[in-house]
Amino acid sequence: MTTFRDAAMQSKAWPFEEARALLKRYEKAPPEKGYVLFETGYGPSGLPHIGTFGEVLRTTMIRRAFEVISDIPTKLVCFSDDLDGMRKVPGNVPNQEELARHMHKPLTSVPDPFGTHDSFGDHNNAMLRRFLDTFGFEYEFYSAKEFYASGQFDDVLMRAAERYDDVMKVMLESLREERAATYSIFLPIHPETGRVLYVPMKHVDAKAGTVTFDDEDGKEWTLPVTGGNVKLQWKPDFGARWAALDVDFEMYGKEHATNTAIYDRICEILGGRKPNHFSYELFLDESGQKISKSSGNGISIDQWLTYASTESLSYFMYLKPKTAKRMHFDVIPKAVDEYHQQLRAYAGQDDAGRANNPVFHIHGHNVPASDMVVSFAMLLNLASVSGAEDKDTLWGFIKRYAPEASPESNPQMDQAAGFAVRYYNDFVKPTKVYRAPSEKERAAMSDLVAKLKTWGGGLDAEELQSMVFAVGKEHDFDPLRGWFTALYEVLLGASQGPRFGGFIALYGIEETIQLIESRLIAE
Which of 53, 148, 274, 522 is spaced 20 to 30 Å from 347 by Cα? Predict the structure, then answer.
C-alpha cells in the first residue's frame, strides 16, 4: 500500500524535487547538529517587500516537502545583515538630516528615525519579524550584530584570518584591477567614529587573530577580528555564514547566481560544507523591467492584499520559480481563480495528485475547502454591469444564483466579493471602452433578447450557454469566438469575458435583457 510519502518521493513538484536532493546530503548519516538548516538572508536597509515574502515562502515550501519525506528535524533561520553600513539615506523615512550624520555606520548604530527602537537596524528587524509573523512563518531570527559580537562567529573569523590569502585569492579573481588593489575581505569598524571602513589591510596576524590598517586620516589601528570589531564583506560573509551555521539549504535570486561558486569555495576554505542552493528568477513589472524595492515599480505585498487573499499570492509565488514572471495588477484575478480551482480539485485527488497540487505546498495537509460559488473573474464582470460600489450589491445576485450561500457560510466568497468591487473600481472601470455593434452583431443581439424574453429554462448556466451559442451559429459567426467577443466588447466594455451563459444565470434574465437593450439603444 502506497503512502503520501511514497507519492512525494515520485512527485515532480519542484519543492519535492529540491527536498529529495537535500535528503541525499544525509543518505549515509544524519547531520551531527541534529537538524537540517534552511536559511534566508535579509538586508535591513529598508522595509520587507514582496521578494522577501517569496523567498521565505518558497524556502518554507521546500522545508515542508522535506519534512514529508524525512524524519530528520528541520530549522529555518532568517538572518539579518544589520551590521551593514548605511550607504544612503532612504527617501521614505523621517529625520533625514539626522540620519545623514551617521552615513557608513552599521544600521544597528544608526538612530531610529521613527523613535521607536534603539536603532534603525532594530526598527527594520522588528518590521521584518512582524512581517514574517503576520504570515505565520516558523523561523528563528538571527542578527548579524549579535552573531558577530556574541562569539558565535569567532571560530570562523579566526579561520578567515588564518586562511586570509586563500580567501583573498578567490575574491581577487572576481574583481577588476582597480577594486582589487584596495580590497580586503575584512571591513573594520572604526573604534572612534563607528563607521564601517573599506580600507586595505597592512597586516593580518593569523596567530593573534588581528588586522592592522590605516583609517581614512592615515592613523594606524590594530583590531581583533573577533567580538564585533570587524565584519566580512558581503560575498565572503555569505560563505562564512554557511560555514559557521552549517547551513544545508539557501535560495536566492538570479542576481546571486554568478556568485554561487564564490560563496561555495569560501565556505569550504573556512571549514564548511557548501549547502544545496536554488536560484529563482526575478519578478518583472508591466513593462518587463525587474521589480526593485528602491524604484517602487511592480506591485507590493500591501497592494496585492488590497485586491486578493494571501493564499492567491502564495499560489502565484509557487508557480514556475525558475521562470521570470510579470507581476502586475492584471495577474491577480487569474491567480485567485486558479488557486480555487486547485482547492476544488484537491478534495478528489489521490496521494500522487495531492503531492503535485500547489495547494498542498501552500497549506500542507490542512488544505481548506473552497466556498467560491462564483469565480473572481465573474464577480468582476458582475461588478462592471451592476456598477457595484460595495459587496452587498454583488451578494444580491450571488444569493439568487446560489440561495444556500451567505457571507457567514462562505467567508472566502464574501472576502472575494469585497476585493472584486475594489479591483473593479480601481482597474477595470477607468479602462472600460464600449464599442457600437455592427449590423450583423446588432441583429444577433436583438435575436438573443427575443429568446431571453421567452426563455423557460430557468437559470441553468449550461442551457443558457447553449442557447447563446446557437444564436451565434444562426447568425453565421465563424469562428464563434467573434460572437462572444462582440458580446464582451459591446455589453461589458472589455475584450474578454466570462462564459456568457454563466453570466446570464448570475446576473439574471431580466437584467441581461435590460443590459443588451440599453447598449443597443445607446449605440
Answer: 53
**What is the structure's pLDDT at 495?**
85
In angstroms, the CA 65 to CA 85 distance is 37
* pLDDT tens per residue across span 173-194: 999 999 999 999 999 999 999 9
Cell 580590497 sits on residue: 183
In whole angstroms, give the CA distance from residue 157 to residue 150: 12
Q: How many CA atoms within 13 Å lie on the side-chain side of 470? A: 10
Burial class of residue 12, CB neighbours in 10 A (0-12, 13-18, 19+): exposed
Q: Which of 381, 372, 352, 232 has its CA nearest to residue 311?
A: 372
How would you classify the pairing of strands 249-253 and 36-42? parallel
Distance CA 17, CA 382 (A): 41
CA distances from 496 to 214, 386, 483 (A): 67, 17, 12
405: nearest Cα among 371, 382, 368: 371
Q: Which CA distances in Å does 38 have to 212, 272, 445? A: 35, 15, 60
- Predicted confidence at residue 298, as pLDDT, reads 62
Contact 521, 513 (CB under 8 A): no
- How far is Cα 53 from Cα 280, in angstroms, rounded to an integer? 13
pLDDT attached to residue 1: 67
Q: Are 487 and 495 a contacting pair, CB within 8 Å? A: no
Q: What cell was used for 116? A: 521607536
Q: How many residues does the chain have?
A: 523
Alpha carbon distances (Å) from 472 to 462, 479, 485, 491? 15, 9, 11, 15
Per-residue confidence (pLDDT) for residue 293, from 0 to 100: 52
| Cβ neighbours of 403 (radius 10 Å) | 8
Instruction: Say if residues 374 and 358 touch (Cβ distance below 8 Å).
Output: no
Q: Find out whether 420 and 392 touch, Cβ atoms under 8 Å.
A: no
Cβ atoms of 148 and 137 within 8 Å: the answer is no
